Automatic annotation (TrEMBL):
It comes from the Bacteria. This is ASC-1 homology (ASCH) domain-containing protein. It comes from Saccharopolyspora antimicrobica. Coiled coil: none annotated. SUPFAM superfamilies: Nucleotidylyl transferase (SSF52374), PUA domain-like (SSF88697).
């Protein structure tokens, strides 16, 4: 039972991780305290081969919601970085003579513009809506963009120096790491890189030799200063290079958001990071999100369906769960439903660090609130200020100008929350200042708090915001109640 007497929507057993945490976001605390980052970035990678299914959108929604929670919890700026994996194989063929498998990536088959179109069609409206619902900025980066950066290439070259130390971690069954460097003429590459050899490695870079089924042998030189030739790494190796490159940042903490099935694979990446002597402060921080399971307990997977047909489709799967673009409603309506669902899962670490069958998720989704959500920026606030707002006596709210405030404009709605109570307001004006002092030179002091003097208010505010937060700048937000004021 919940405190308010309603029966709990979710029942979850305890787990090792849940037992160690009061809230899911606490998982980040040891690294946040050790690093004191200026920013936390939640990194979520997604295959873009086809319409997203529920599992994919669940990871993405969790990234945005955790970014919102982390911003509040650690008083730091946060954002989401979406990695579109356009190196997924688009087509695989066999060389008729050697029977070597060759593959072409989505990027090579479709080209940059078509990839951008895929991202626009499947994700843009969804991310824009999530960004608005959680006041969280996001950036999109393709794997193709990422592999072309000097940081990624330099990191890759460093791993080549230690190839013997990592190859059994990256390929425990045969010790052969697959580095695909597509033919510069046609863009096809050997799937298992059988004839791709590292010919030379020195401080100027690495030279590979490979063989195209159509254009014969070719040489490719990888140099951090040059964004070509294309470098297509197998999944584990790509993650090793990516996590190692991101781990070097001293001001941004990168949090890898991964579907729960990744937990099994990550020990191989960790083994390789250890073999490369990655220092503890560079080790990746990862959050594994709930898996969506078929009744058999297997991950709900579109490839399983492709291979076994609709026979493999569990009776409980609703069409939108496999292709979320078929959701019977608007994008905002879908996002509001997902934000509600993931918010419920995040209400207790026992609910978040576990998996869910499609049937259980279907049950939860039908239990969601039916009244439409009014989209509003959300702000937590102390009780004494909440009461002043609800009774109409506080008409200016003061915040530091972090990224989540940038979207607040006259006419925006702000929902203030305090101890399970909430009040909805409309923004009448927005003014930005360099400091709290400057703000009080221009804003009516009594509109911020009618019960305290300027000096008392300054002292209170500075207890809440340390100097490094005030350095972001100050935003004064004029507010009016959308409903009549409550009695005093
Ligand atoms: Zn070729």
């Amino acid at each position: 039972m919940r405190r308010n007497g309603k029966p709990s929507l979710l029942l979850s057993p305890n787990s090792i991780l849940a037992n160690a945490l009061l809230r899911s976001i606490d998982l980040l605390r040891p690294r946040v305290l050790a690093m004191r980052p200026a920013r936390i970035e939640f990194v979520v990678g997604t295959q873009i081969n086809g319409a997203p299914h529920l599992g994919t959108n669940l990871v993405q929604t969790a990234a945005f919601l955790l970014a919102k929670l982390a911003r509040r919890e650690f008083s730091t700026d946060t954002r989401v970085r979406f990695g579109a994996l356009d190196n997924a194989p688009y087509e695989v063929v066999l060389d008729p003579e050697t029977h070597t498998a060759y593959q072409q990536t989505y990027y090579h088959a479709l080209g940059k513009d078509k990839i951008a179109e895929l991202i626009e069609n499947y994700y843009r409206a969804f991310f824009d809506s999530l960004s608005e619902a959680t006041d969280t900025d996001y950036a999109v980066e393709t794997y193709t963009d990422q592999q072309a950066t000097p940081g990624f290439r330099a990191e890759f070259l460093r791993t080549l120096e230690r190839l013997d130390d990592i190859r059994w971690w990256m390929a425990p069954s045969h010790g052969v790491i697959h580095t695909r460097i597509p033919c510069p003429v046609c863009g096809w590459a050997e799937k298992r890189a059988d004839r791709t050899k590292l010919a030379h490695l020195d401080e100027d870079g690495a030279t590979f030799t490979a063989v195209c089924f159509d254009h014969g042998p070719y040489e490719a030189h990888i140099d951090p200063e040059d964004d070509s030739p294309y470098l297509d790494l197998a999944t584990l190796y790509r993650n090793l290079v990516k996590e190692r490159a991101l781990g070097r940042s001293t001001d941004t903490l990168h949090v890898m958001m991964k579907g729960g099935d990744w937990a099994f694979g990550c020990q191989l990446v960790d083994g390789a990071l250890g073999a490369l002597h990655a220092p503890p402060e560079h080790m990746p921080v990862r959050i594994f999100t709930p898996q969506v399971l078929a009744p058999t307990g297997a991950k709900l997977s579109k490839s399983l369906l492709r291979e076994h047909g609709t026979r493999a489709l569990p009776a409980d799967v609703e069409p939108w769960m496999l292709d979320t673009t078929t959701w019977p409603g608007s994008t905002d309506n879908y996002v509001d439903a997902l934000v509600w669902l993931v918010g419920e899962l995040l209400s207790d670490p026992k609910h978040f660090f576990r998996s869910f069958t499609v049937k259980e998720l279907g049950r939860l989704m039908t239990a969601r609130p039916t009244e439409p959500t009014i989209r509003a920026h959300e702000m937590g606030i102390y009780k004494r200020y909440f009461d002043l707002i609800a009774t109409g006596r506080k008409t200016t709210e003061i915040r530091v100008n972090d990224s989540s405030r940038k979207k607040i404009k006259p006419g925006s709605l702000i929902r203030f929350r305090c101890q399970g109570d909430e009040v909805l307001t409309r923004v009448t004006r927005v003014n930005r200042y360099a400091s709290f002092e400057e703000m009080f030179d221009h804003e009516p002091v009594a509109s911020v708090n009618p019960t305290a003097t300027r000096d008392e208010q300054l002292a209170n505010i500075r207890q809440i915001y340390p100097p490094e937060r005030e350095a972001l700048g100050v935003v004064a937000i004029g507010i009016e109640l959308t409903d009549p004021p409550r009695p005093q």
